[in-house]
Amino acid sequence: MKSLRIRSYSVFGACPEIYRKRVAHWKHNKELYNHEFLVVDDKDGRLGMCPLRLGVSTTIYEPSHILMYGGKLITPIKNLENNDIVYKEKTTLGLIDRIQLEFLEENADLHNENFYESNNDKKFGYVAACRSFDRDENKDIPIKDKIEKLKKSVKDGGYLYIEYYISLDDNDLEKYPLNSFLRYGEMKEYFNSNDWIVISISEEATQEEINVMNLESKPIILGRIEVRRKKEKIRSEYNKRKPRKITELNKCGVVQINRRKVRSYTITGVIR
Questions:
Q1: Comparing C-alpha atoms, which of 263, 149, 134 is closest to residue 208?
Q2: Ramachandran angles phi, psi of 123, nearest 5°
Q3: Contact 198/227 with Cβ under 8 angstroms?
Q4: How large is the greatest C-alpha to C-alpha distance in the chain, in angstroms?
Q5: For the chain, N or C: smaller number of CB within 10 Å?
Q6: Contact, 135 vs 39, CB < 8 A?
Q7: What distance lies between CA 41 and its chain's CA centroid?
Q8: Helix (H) or strand (E) holding 255
Q9: Can you tell me whether residue 218 is helix, strand or coil?
Q10: d(CA 142, CA 206)
């Protein structure tokens, strides 16, 4: 008799495709497969369940007691006939419930605490933070410190994936405080090319999926970045290189030109 394969689902929507693909190929990478995952502010397992299903050792931090252990939440439910949203108090599965339901306890290391205030200095092959900066538990921690703590958790050659929200009005510090919301184009500045390779970055307006953290499904600007830390040997060789000089001849002689990389970002969708 075949055993039934049980699959649970997060109330925060599906994993983003870029993250899911990286995890799916993880087991085929002999160099990385034995490295552990770290997922920060994972809520009910939106990102953490993926590596656990592959048998990868995964450390997960989630400060909310309800999201970790389950409980009652005001949950939006969409009526498929007319697309109206109805709000009901519903008992939802917590992260631990989902892990036990799928028999994934063996490789899970769970922490019901705030990662950014923890003393964890262990390094991981893959670190992921799930819309973490704007949470109430983290609002008093400078955003630079949060990003630096995530970066320090990544091994040489390891990956870092961050989902984050971007301010819709940089002048409205009450609604979009600096500790919780990045400014447009700011994230890439935290990753210098000597130490990091930016694999992909996107910042665009989107209609977020209905979930318990976004009950009204308001338009948002959502950022996603995936980077890889360069290995020590590669970083050392990179830093030894002499900077290239770009010159231009004109009537006055030789003139030094400083070229700057220009980053362009596009916004699609409705912004209010």
A1: 134
A2: -110, 145
A3: yes
A4: 86
A5: N
A6: no
A7: 9
A8: strand 253-256
A9: coil
A10: 26
- Look at the alpha carbons of 40, 73, 181, 167 in this order and tell me if their dihedral is positive or negative: positive
Helix (H) / strand (E) element for 256: namely strand 253-256
| DSSP alpha helix (H) spans, the chain | 17-26, 49-53, 65-69, 95-101, 143-152, 232-240
Q: How confident is the model at residue 178 (pLDDT cuts 50, 70, 90)?
A: very high
User: Are 95 and 112 within 8 A, CB to CB?
Assistant: no
SS3 238: helix
pLDDT in tens, 236-264: 555 555 554 433 433 333 333 233 333 33
Residue pair 65/72 in contact by the 8 Å Cβ criterion: no
- Confidence at 97, pLDDT banded by 50, 70, 90: very high
Q: What would the pLDDT profile of 206-222 be if each residue is shown by its tens digit?
A: 765 545 555 555 567 88
The pLDDT score that the predictor gives to residue 241 is: 55
**Cα separation, 154 vs 96, whole angstroms:** 25
**Closest among 95, 143, 154 to 120, alpha carbons compared:** 154
Neighbours of 160 (CB within 10 A): 23
Q: Which two tokens stand for residue 116?
A: 């950014």
| CB-based contact 196:152 (threshold 8 Å) | no
- The CB-side HSE value for 61 (13 A sphere, CA atoms) comes to 21
Phi, psi of 84 (to 5 degrees): -70, 155
Phi, psi dihedrals of residue 3, rounded to the nearest 5°: -80, 140
User: 238 in the Ramachandran plot: left (φ > 0), alpha (ψ -120 to 50) or beta?
Assistant: alpha
Alpha-carbon distance 261 to 264, whole Å? Answer: 10
Short-list 58, 223, 28, CA closest to 127: 58
β-partners of residue 130 are: 163
For every residue of 38-68, DSSP letters joined together read EEES-TTTTTTHHHHHTT--EEEE---HHHH
